[in-house]
Amino acid sequence: MGLWPAPVPGRRVDDLPSTEWLEATKERVEQYMMKAVKEAKTFTSWTDPDPAFEEAVRQFIRVVLTPRDESTFLSDVSRFVARIAPAGALNTLARLCVHYTSPGIPDTYQGDELWFRALVDPDNRRPVDFRARQMLLQTIPGLPDVATAADIASEGASDRLKLHLVRSLLHARRANPELFREGSYEPIPTGGVRSGHVFAFLRRHGEQAVLVLVPRLIAGCFGKRGEPRSAAWEEITLGLPAELAGRQWRSVITGQPLPADPSVEALFTPVPVAVLITGNR
C-alpha cells in the first residue's frame, strides 16, 4: 500500500501501474524483503542464510507483481488504494503541519519534500532528484496567495501541494523564530458533533500566536468511493482563549487575511489544513 501509486483522475480505479513501474518495484521489494527475512532470523539470517528459502521469497514476489488474466490480486490492490488514498494524502498533510509547528526543531528527510512512496531501508535510500525539486519550486510563487493555493489544491495530492506546504511552513518559522522556538503549547478544545475529527493547538510568545488546525480520524470524513462527505466540518467550534477574541489572523498556507473567529469549514478552504498567525511582524 505504501508503494502503490495514487489513482489517476479520470482513470478506472482498478487500472494497474505501468509495466515499467511493476518491473522496477519487483527489484525494490526483493531488496526490502531480503533484509526483512534475514533480520527476522526465522528461516534465514545474515550469519546462517538459507539460499533455497530466500529464492522462494524472490519467486513469490515476482509472481505476485506480474499481471495475469486469471489473477485479480493487483486489480484488487488498485481498488483498495483508490479507496484509501484521499484519506492517506490528507493524513500526510495533517502530519506535516503538526510536524513543522510543534515545539522543537523539525527535520525533513532528503527527498521527503515531495510524496515519497518508499519502504524502509534500503528502499528509502535511493538517490534523490534534487534538480526536479528545484524545477518544481520555480512553478510556485514565493509568497503564498489564495489563487495559487486554490490552483495547487485543485490538482489533488500533487507534488506541488506537498512542496508548497513544506515551503510555506518553513518560511513562517524563519519569519517568526521566537514564536516557534520559545512559544507555548496550548491544546485547543473543539465542540460539535464532528469535533473528534479535528485537532487544534495554539502557540504563543508575547503578542504573537500561531493556531494549528488539522483533520484527524480522516477516513470517517470520506464516503466509500473516497469522496469527501458534504458538510464534514460544519458546526465544529474552536474554544480559543478569550484574550484572542477579535484578533485578525493570516493563513500561512494561502496568505489570506481572515476575520476574527472564522469557521472550521472556512479555514479548510481551499486546502484542508490550516496554520494561522496573528500579531506577526
List the helices and strands and how they pair.
Elements: H1 19-40, H2 51-64, H3 73-101, H4 130-137, H5 146-153, H6 159-175, H7 177-182, E1 186-187, E2 190-191, E3 198-205, E4 208-215, E5 237-238, E6 249-251, E7 257-258, H8 264-267, E8 274-278
Antiparallel strand pairs: 1-3, 2-5, 3-4, 4-8, 6-7, 6-8
Helix pairs in contact: 1-2, 3-6
Order of helix and strand elements from N to C terminus? HHHHHHHEEEEEEEHE
Report the total helices.
Answer: 8
When the domains are counted, the total is 2
Task: Summarize model confidence as the mean pLDDT.
Answer: 90
Largest sheet: 6 strands, antiparallel
Q: Would you report the number of β strands?
A: 8
Distance between the termini: 43 Å
Ranges with pLDDT <50 over ≥5 residues? none
Q: Main sheet: which strands, in order across?
A: 1-3-4-8-6-7
What Rg, in angstroms, do the CA atoms define? Answer: 22 Å
Give the class from helix and strand content and strand pairing.
Answer: alpha+beta
Beta-strand portion reads: 5-15%
Percent helix among the residues?
A: 25-40%
What form results from the Cα inertia axes?
elongated
Description:
By secondary structure, this protein is an alpha+beta fold. The protein has two domains: 19-66, no CATH class; 101-114 and 124-278, no CATH class. The protein contains eight helices and eight strands. It has a six-stranded antiparallel sheet. It has a two-stranded antiparallel ribbon with strand order 2-5. β3 (198-205) and β4 form a beta hairpin. The longest helix has 29 residues, at 73-101. It is elongated and about 70 Å long. The relative contact order is 0.12. The model has no long low-confidence stretch (mean pLDDT 90).
